[in-house]
Amino acid sequence: MERALNPGDRVWISGGYDMEPRWLGGGSGYAGVVSGFISGQNKKSAMVVMLDAVIRVDGAEGRYLVLELRYVGAEWRESATVHLELLRDPPEDSDPHGRSRGAWIESHAMLRLA
Predict the structure, then answer these.
(1) Is-contact 15 107, C-beta < 8 A?
(2) Residue 105, class by beta-carbon neighbours within 10 Å (0-12 exposed, 13-18 middle, 19+ buried)?
(3) DSSP string covering 13-65
(4) What does the pLDDT look like over 83-93, one tens digit per residue?
């Protein structure tokens, strides 16, 4: 059984809806660390990841990602399919519908424990 992901865990984020997702910039993925969880748009919390490198895509850039679980019943485990929101600065933990939003960059990324 897969274990739950926790703050401080190293993760790898890759993949996407397209065969060559623009957000990957020709690479295979991005490494980062789970910095915490904030209120999600649905019932589940959203995960915040601080990346080791800056992502630049479609005029947006940042090293923080807010990840939302893609499927009903999914859990924050060693692997998951996620939506990605890119931010320059860490997000505040507030009402997810009222907080400052980043750039939505992917709907089907793959998250796994590194």
Answers:
(1) no
(2) buried
(3) EE--SSSS-GGGTTSS-EEEEEEEEE--SSSSPEEEEEEEEEEEETTEEEEEE
(4) 999 999 998 87
